[in-house]
Write a structure and sequence with these properties.
binds N,N,N-trimethyl-histidine, globular, about 325 residues, 12 strands, seven-stranded mixed beta sheet, alpha/beta, three-stranded antiparallel beta sheet
């Protein structure tokens, strides 16, 4: 949805609640039980995620911001005549602002399309981008695919698609390939992607990032239950669920789960949900896949991109990779 369109908002909100209910019903019934991680990001969830980014144990945001500040100028130098940047899942837009500010000189105005499912994140991001030089923020409250489609219908010229913060980690490997292939099919030769990806690192560091001593990540995870109660009228005992993060070495992913402390029921009358969980039974709420740097080039190449630069933060194990559609 384009932020400038005011009318369809109500209809979309209604539809998105129905979609949420349908997704909860479907994913909770799977084995193992799941909930899609994109539903973390209501207003409270987005605020909790911002807090996570400030935690000493969650290094992704700071590492990426450092790389963008240092190498952002090279990104722009490699893309002369860039007229448009599309960021998928910008959150508060601070990383994109760092990137834009790193450009030593820029020719002409640049359209900055911000695509996020969170309305509150978009409002903050648009503000953060709006006061950087000649950047013109355009917001789309949408999922990645539909937002990308909307943004590209307004294509003005050479385009950079930014997918930062290791957001790609939420896709399983086939999903990540399909997603990048879809981007490749949607952009033109000479367009580029900028991909920020968290790297495999020692397990203790991975677990501390997803199960922090302050319990912010636990609150972020359990907020999904709060959201289900608030938006869907779900009847859930919030205290009946605890947060768990596990490193799945075989799959190279950190998983987050909600664990039933005792026997639990989740009931949503309007969505015909009536699930009973055994003590210890889990709901899998997120995967954050971690990569080794060479895999990122391989993945991009397999999806029709030509990697042109990769910058790595060794301290925190994070890679920023640029690739061109050619
Ligand atoms: C925004 C999806 C990249 O997977 O690290 C942070 C979300 N989950 N702590 C991530 C998240 C738990 C984050 N991404």
């Amino acid at each position: 949805m384009d932020s400038r369109a005011t009318n369809p908002v109500v209809a979309l909100d209604h539809a998105s609640v129905e979609q949420f209910a349908a997704d909860v019903r479907y994913y909770l019934s799977l084995t193992p039980r799941q909930l899609p991680s994109r539903y973390f990001y209501d207003d409270l969830g987005s605020a909790l995620f911002e807090s996570i980014c400030r935690l000493p144990w969650y290094t992704i945001t700071r590492a990426e911001t450092r790389l963008l500040a240092v190498h952002g100028d090279s990104v722009f130098r490699r893309l002369p005549s860039l007229t448009q940047v599309i960021e998928l899942g910008p959150g508060n837009g601070e990383k994109l602002r760092t990137l834009l500010q790193a450009a030593s000189r820029r020719r002409g105005p640049i359209d900055v399309h911000l695509i996020d499912v969170s309305a509150s994140a978009l409002a903050i991001a648009a503000q953060n981008i709006g006061n950087v030089g000649d950047a013109r923020p355009i917001t789309h409250q949408a999922t990645y695919d539909s937002g990308l489609r909307q943004a590209l219908t307004q294509r003005t010229g050479r385009t950079l698609v930014a997918f930062l913060g290791s957001n790609i980690g939420n896709f399983d490997p086939p999903g990540a390939s399909a997603f990048l292939q879809n981007i490749r099919a949607s952009v033109k030769n000479g367009d580029a992607v900028l991909l920020g990806v968290d790297l495999v690192k020692p397990v203790d560091r991975l677990l501390a990032a997803y199960d922090d001593p302050l319990g912010v990540t636990a609150a972020f995870n359990r907020n999904l239950l709060v959201r289900m109660s608030r938006e869907l009228g779900a009847s859930i005992d919030l205290d009946g669920f605890s947060h768990r993060a596990v490193w799945n070495a075989e799959q190279a992913r950190v998983e987050m789960h909600l664990v039933a402390r005792t026997a639990q029921t989740i009931q949503i009358l309007r969505a015909h949900v009536d699930e009973r969980l055994q003590p210890g039974e889990t709901i899998w709420t997120e995967s954050s896949y971690k990569y080794v740097s060479e895999q990122i080039d391989d993945l991009l190449e397999a999806c029709g991109f030509n990697p042109t630069a990769q910058w790595i933060d060794r301290d925190d194990g994070f890679a920023l990779t640029m690739a061109e559609a050619s």
